[in-house]
């Protein structure tokens, strides 16, 4: 494989963030070649032992979201620690002077004090709500109507989805905001003060798809549709051997492919006639979704998964098998072109990690291990701030920084009993089996 | 309000995309001040009537995702149309020469032919899978294990979430990729060929949170937990008047706040003793989630929503009410600082639309109407390519472009019968009621 281009080589971002959104912004930039320095208090931030944990008791979550970054531990609550952080965030360099902060309701460092040190600093403040009050993905999602639309038909209560989608999305909004600010700085010489609230990302997300306007025009929320896709035809089917698949006919061509492979053309022509419908139109496919699904269901129920797969592939139907997370991991291992690959994570061991999905000049970027907590404290303070070993030693003695030892398992809680240590990996599931 | 900065003023992106991911990339860039020219075939792309529809039969989805762009209609399947598109995508300008394409399995225009016209062109090809085979959010999500983890406990079948999270996320990955490529071009003078597959974004998304590695170590998928948050404590509760809320105790401080306001400290201290647990640890809160929820539930069930809200707010508990989409719209209208605001969308009328969530120097960007389809064909061909009215007229006669008429309601399907025309808007719900 040709080495992946590092288009953001020369950039340096100081990341004072935790959990998903902030760290995933830094991850995306690191995967494009930026030097991302994650700063945590000695002992780790509040996400340092966030689940899922490995059988060694380390956080697979933390390891996944901090791949390819440098880790520095500084206690920003001390006067000296604040000073170090301020110096790091405003250190010279054309691609430096970028600070990401996700303290809730207040700042580790304010824009004004950063700017006093470096006029063109770029400061991003990420938080739950724009008024400074706390909120997380799990609370925000409840407020934007999604759990009332998710889940099986007939369920009365809200159904949370497990994916922290607003966190992931906010992370990429932050990454694009930093890049926009850098581009602006390259062109105009000015810094920028950016702020982003998860709550605003979520409301804009549902608003951009027209969901807010729809609810107002409808005079109430859209009703829950189970696994049916909204506004066109798409739903899950079960094969004779109990496998489930998601089948979608979003466009007219996809609808024709599905109808033809299931040899239901005459049935649907008669139905269109009887019901005054035109199933080439997505709206009519949606209105008649239950009827369409009922007509198609026996075709799937009469065939095993292998047969269904072969016929759907040949007919170019748009579909996917449902895979559980372990099956998804196996499929990824069986696929040489996958964005996931085995990687040796220091402190944990070999694990399946994911690289950069964006391909640049034909290549992605393979996963790179996360640092041990505090691994780069000494190097960063020495290289970027010119501190001597003695100065760093004194800071360590004063509890301001910690240069090593944070990566040890001491004082950790035992790992989840749900995780058997050394459970064997299963391999070899074909990519779409 | 001070006018919002336009940090990407001077940029021009030609967007040949449809549905969510590609258009949401263009939307994010347009909301930062870029000139985004969406190119569709005459009559509209395959998402032109995507649901939700307004009571006028227009797509609220299309209007939401194309806010603030220019719209040009060119039939790229004709020789002359391809030539026009090529010329637009490679037109001169320091911030121009950027083309986003999401044709499945092939290209509207290849990188090589674009580059032959403009050496430093930036080309992004967005598709379902990296091998060119089609996939959409709804099929991809089935393959990455999420529907097996979503939904009420006890449900056996996969539960799709309704939010096209991978689409939204892919859009922001594209936006950040374009900005990274522009920054790289500013600094190095080189263009870039970028490719992104939804399937890779989804796999990287679950991988980055450690979910793939966890499933392998566990030897199987994580089991479904209903509305419980994974790895810490968070679940929904019902008040005496039937309102539901999501309550989260992710950090130790949040746990203390919840325990104290519900006056359950002694109960949990006794439980910790009896069960050998330490509820200040998120792992123990997760393991004992059912017990914790059962202890707390009566407190919520004995109080009405107003009382619960007041007590939780005062105690700084992390929580949100569940709002359905209509309630979310009302709350947004009642909140003067909301990213959502009423906007007059030509062809549809006043509706609740959303602006830019990212605040720059203290201000967001209010929503700007979407164009009528083809509204800017004549202006763009004239201004950017120097075509005369006569030349444009000949192209229109040949069916290559259409300068007007696409915005009319003729030949449209009737709007959804589920949408009562002119349903009154309800206002005045307090922001967090």
TrEMBL record, chains A, B:
Gene Ontology terms, MF aspect: transferase activity
Record keywords: Transferase
Pfam (any one): CoA_transf_3
Highest taxon of source: Bacteria
Region of interest (Disordered), ranges: 400-433
Methyltransferase recorded as keyword: no
Membrane-traversing stretches: none
InterPro entries: CoA-transferase_III, CoA-Trfase_fam_III, CoA-Trfase_III_dom3_sf, CoA-Trfase_III_dom_1_sf
Protein name listed in UniProt: CoA transferase
Organism from which the protein derives: Streptomyces akebiae
